[in-house]
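Quick one, T. Sequence first:
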Amino acid sequence: MSSSTHARHFDFFLQVTARRIAGKAAMRERFPPILSAWFPDPGGMHIIRIAGTNGKGSVCAMLEACLRSSNRVGVFTGPHLVSVTERFRIDGAPANDAMLTEICERFRLFLDNWLSRHGPEMTPSFFEVLVLIALAVFREAGVKVAVFEAGIGGYNDAVSCLPGIISAVTTVGLDHQDRLGSGLEEIAADKAGIASERGMLVLGPGMDEKARTALFRDARKRNVTVIEAIPVAPVEKHRNGSRFQITEPGFLNLFDLPAETLYLNLAGDHQLRNAGTVLALSAAAKTELGIESDLIGLSRISWPGRLQWFRIDSRYWLADVAHNLEAVQALRCYLDDRVPHAERILIYGAAADKDYAPLLPAIKALAPQIILTGGFYRSIQPEALAEEFPSDAEYRCASSIAEAIEEARALCRQSPHVGVIIAGSVFLVGAVFDQLKIPTHPQQKPPGQSEGGVQPGIVSGNTSLPPTGGS
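Structure tokens:
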């Protein structure tokens, strides 16, 4: 998609939301009525809803990869890396530009009429508009299964209002405490709302016991059937993925798998845990909805910006959207297994609305040399980050993404073995990808080597590129 087309679509979403400001009515008051008016009947479309502090986007992408073999699948995720069209995927590709443009214009007319009858207090939020557009995109495309990633919570998230009996909570961690609550129990209690009454809720593995207790308590109140993730055990770990074993006999029989091991084309122990959630969701889709899955799809998954290697000036760079403590710890675990600490340079930036200060000691531990940067969507200024950064850290500030990239390249030229890590925000990773023209979906063809020496490499681990010092 051209930058002008992307800008036009993004401008549309801003016009119908941010410039009007979301109505004062609570989400549970304003969203269900407009949802019923815009999307009165899902028809033959099944909707699966995914919530969680971390991992929900990866679970959506994995589930899509499994379902696509025998179904037309739509996936709604966010935030996007480069183009807003990434949020609306059909069979792995962003929505058709002409279709999206036509639906946006149709929605503009609908919303004008809606607000003239119901008043400005019923104006949907930015995220709610995205959800409504996604429903229309998937309906127009003839999608059979639509997988929706929640924005932040459960009860207070528009995705929880969508019809559907299958849902999941991937993880519960400390993030968005200003909106969901200060502790894990409070956060879990809100995320429990992603499940529909008398529906089915898959729980990701390894949750804190307080969070699990809150989720089970809510499930009992609303007659929700709780399903545990399928246990998996790593057999071989690779730079870009893992081969794992399924040990539950009933699951093997359900899918008539030829072997007890599968390959996941996403790296990190946390992604193996996410895979267990996806296996349970696939089983529920088959038994409850009659929807078939091909679990070999896990070996073909592409999910950019998640432990993704690429190469610049013959050096290996790693991008990961880790932005909270749990995600940064997962990134460090992956790095410690593969890249010597002394051989790392980190480009770090944070969104201004994040509580980034408690995260900075963990960020400092990722690399001995750190470049603090801003200049991307919603970013905090690097000087403000520097004021909070540990005093014994070695860091420098870069006012723009281009400057941060050049700083990193200069540091690489000073040492023959170092590589670069980019982490801290999905918006940061997206800005770096945009600057370097790194593809953000597998249908995009990487451009040839540029004058600046950029060599786009892996798109979500499809080629084995070794890190600078690791095996």
